[in-house]
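Sample intake sheet
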Amino acid sequence: MPALISQDGRWWWDGTQWRTRLVEGQLDLFWFTSTPEWFTRVIVTGLIGLIPIVGAINLLGWTLAANDMVRRGWKELPPAGFQHLERGVAPFVVGLVYAVALFLVVGVLVFTTILLATSGRPQAVLAIAVALLIFLLVIAWWLVSLYLLAAVLMASDRLGLAKAVDPTRLFALARANHEISLHVALIYAAATIAIGVITLPVSIFIPFGAFLVALALPAVYAIIVPSLAAFRVEPAAAPQV
């Protein structure tokens, strides 16, 4: 059922009281839970997110649209739908480029590990060392990608795909917005780890339980939206040639 909106559009009725639709002061982590139709918009966006590739792209676009609304002082999540697809292409491609690069490096290292492990006992120690290197590389990539998450989203949207692929530019932007980058990284990491912890037992007892828990992912992005709204993409943050 659509929310009841005041004539001037500044207020909505939640069933018990009138709530403002405008950003007033600093938003808390779960700011979106006091906005009209937030549950439906999160769930429907999460359902769309279950579609391979297309869902991930749409979710990124939806997040950027939410960021725009908060930056304009509007306290509301954007409506769910496929209209956010085009907006999400750039950040998705940037993430894909770095994921492919990691896959190629890890693939070479895994192949090297297999060769060493099957070359005889003297090479076993080297195989273990390379395997440890692979593990550390993946962990390092995960941590770096968390720190650069805000920069990837904002740079790809504000500067364009070509500039956002440049790692020196991303690191410059992340450092220029260090507190925001770190805040987004910590929130996203904690939220996704919590979802993962919940997913395991749910999947055991409920068929396709992991998919049900995945519906909460749009809420995770909604949590980081106020931080993204404060992220500044300035020319001075670009790498010096």
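Comment: The chain has ten helices and three strands. Strands lie at 4-5, 11-13, 18-20.
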